[in-house]
Amino acid sequence: MLPGLLPLQSGAATPWDDANAQTRRFIRQTMQEQRIPGLQIAVVKDGRVVLSDALGLANVENDVATTPTTRFPLNSATKSFTGVAMAQLADAGRVDLEAPLSRYLDDLPEAWRSVRVRQLLAHTSGLPDILDARGLLGGGSEQDAWNAVAALPVEAPAGQRFMYNQTNYVLLARIIARQSGVPYAQYLQQGQFAAAGMPRTTFGDSYDLVAGAATMYSYAPRGTDAPDAAPRLSHWFYDMPPTLWAGGGILTTADDVAQWMVALSQQRLLPRRSMTRMWRAERLNDGTDGSWAAGWPVLGTVPDLQVGGMGGARAAFIVYPERGLAVVVLTNLVGANPQRFIPTIAGFYAPPQVSRAARPSPAGSPR
Description:
This protein is an alpha+beta fold and 367 residues long. The chain has helices at residues 17-34, 78-91, 117-121, 142-150, 167-180, 184-196, 245-248, 254-265, 272-278, 342-349; strands at 38-45, 48-59, 64-65, 72-73, 131-132, 135-136, 202-203, 217-218, 234-235, 250-252, 298-300, 306-311, 315-320, 325-331, 333-334. Strands 3-2-1-14-13-12-11 form a 7-stranded antiparallel sheet, sandwiched between helices. A 3-stranded antiparallel sheet has the order 4-10-7.
């Protein structure tokens, strides 16, 4: 049995039976209302996986059911894993998050050299984006895209404002590889996937042949549809080359992400002080807090802290450190936006608390 998975006997009552029942009813209703083909959910409470479920279809046209081992893309929620990787390197003394990029990377444009590492994690670097509406800049190879973005002016002075872009995480992957001595994907495999017990977690996109991967869908109109055409379920393809893996490349299951949450709560990946620092919003030049911490969006601080990961408008997880709670929902529908309904699920297990002056404990730690 995986660590952190509660060894329940069939029919045995648990403190979470009511919350689990409410969640299952709510999830089925939400799937019906939003016409979500397939979904996985996992809930971690006080260091235990108290709910794990897989519903619907991983592939509609072939009537393939979603199972606990079906792989779903995290897309941009991958950035939280990159945040943990950088926190691990910082904890080991291999990276100073306050240092300029020039300490770790050579051949940077002059205007980029003074940007701090933490500003990459929090999207306050002001750097231009390596992606545009059509994908990688320049319409060519990954190297062509890098050459194109490096030639662009910065969008804003570092630390001036929050500006989401993928260039930040391309650079973070390079720092991780250089300071760890192994490629980005290998560092995550060793330092997080293996350490947390995540056997189904890998990297790829919808063009890769990944065993057990869910098919992605959307109700968005096609470019050839008439303006008054009725919405219809269609395939959704996305391209995530290795250059962009640190910002959006993970394929995984809700159970694997839940085990990652358990490992965080048990301080097997990071000490508590490092998690507290990782989840602290990046301060802007004017003294206000930015929208992100170190790899994690800060989704709220009132009535208590809420941090998480969101990806592709179809996958999300939210951690409520002061409630000892984390909720993971992965779907195969673009536009499902589970971060919008996860707070309702969280309320079934632990109502919002008034923030305490004490330092928040990591998700799942005993209080």
